[in-house]
Each structure stands twice: as structure tokens, then as C-alpha cells.
Design a protein that fits this description.
With about 190 residues, the chain is of the alpha/beta class. It is built from five helices and seven strands, in the order E-H-E-H-E-H-E-E-E-E-H-H. Strands 2-1-3-4-5-6-7 form a seven-stranded mixed β-sheet. The two termini are about 15 Å apart. Bound molecules: inosinic acid.
Length: about 190
Amino acid sequence: MKKPLVLATGNPGKLNEMQPYLAGLDWELQLKPPELEIEETGDTFGANARLKASCVAEATGEWAVADDSGLAVEALGGAPGIYSARYGKTDADRISRLLTELAGRSDRDARFICAIAIARPDGTIALAVEGICPGRILEAPRGTGGFGYDPIFYVPEYDMTFAEMPLDIKQKCSHRGRAFQALLPQLGEIQ
Ligand code: IMP
């Protein structure tokens, strides 16, 4: 019988991207109860992923998986970092704030980071991994796919922004994809 695994995300863009990685496994994915809100008080992506996985596992009494991710821009000392989701009210606001802060700067290196943690039903952490995707912040958005900062995040290796990539390519090269690639071989062994 498949074991339930509760996804600790309320973000539909992330859910769409996470589901395919976990689909073929011996786990039955469930969404976290919508009333369960967890404050992200950690000061790293890893700390927040562990915190969310533990809280959801404890609250539901099931295994839980959580991710915490964001964009770190070198010239801004790693901002918006763990505040990526709170950098503005809407995706458009967040993009426009970032472009304003980088106006006139040629050093536009950035990286997307994704931490994933899996917690046992008692809240203890069974697995924790991290994936990174290096890129650059463009001066204007390009592409219509994806979510969040995708239209301004350019990946030189593929000569495309995240928003221009077909989903299967984003899944392969993104921070989330790389974190899942690290996680999946270990998933069969946890208990
Ligand atoms: P979280 O929900 O706390 O993990 O916040 C992540 C935030 O980082 C999201 O709301 C997005 O703004 C941004 N983000 C994370 N992953 C991606 C991605 O793959 N593309 C674009 N933006 C992302």
C-alpha cells in the first residue's frame, strides 16, 4: 500500500512543478490542510524547509515534504533570498523592485536555491537536500511560462529564461529539479 506524503505548500506554481517528480513513487501525495499556516521563521532555506516539513507532519500525523526556495542576487548581497516571496505584493511588483535595484548595474549574477526536507509523522527530519541553479537577471522580462521571477531569470546553459523554457527543461535544470534529483535516490530508503 502507498504511504501518504503531505505536501507542505500552498503555492500552486510550486505544486505543479513538484508533483511530477513524486508521481511515480510509492507515496500518495496529499495537499496540506489549507487552514494549516506555518510561519517561516528560519534564517536559511534549509531551516525553513525543515520547519515546514516538521510542522505539517506533526499536525497531520503523516509523512510530509516541504520546500523553501528563492532567488539570491550576488550584487544585492544575496537578496531577496529567504524574503523572495515577500519582496513585493505581486510577482510583477517583485520583478519591478528587483529590476529597479539592479538598474545600471552590469554585475547581474544570481542563483535560485531550493531546499527540500522530508519529515516523519513524529516531526523528526528524515532527509534534507539542496539544489542550486546559477543564472543572470535580465534587464527586462522575457517569456510567458512559469511563475514568480521566471521571466527575468536567464540560464546561460540553455540560452533561455525560466519563463521561456518548456516545463520538462525547467524541471531538469531548475534549483527544484536539482534538489529532487538529489532527493529521489534516497527516498526509497527512508523510514
Ligand atoms: P517560498 O514559497 O517561501 O519557497 O518562496 C519562494 C518564492 O521564491 C516564490 O514565491 C517565488 O517568488 C520565488 N521562487 C521560488 N522558486 C521559483 C521559481 O522556480 N521560479 C520563479 N520564482 C521562484
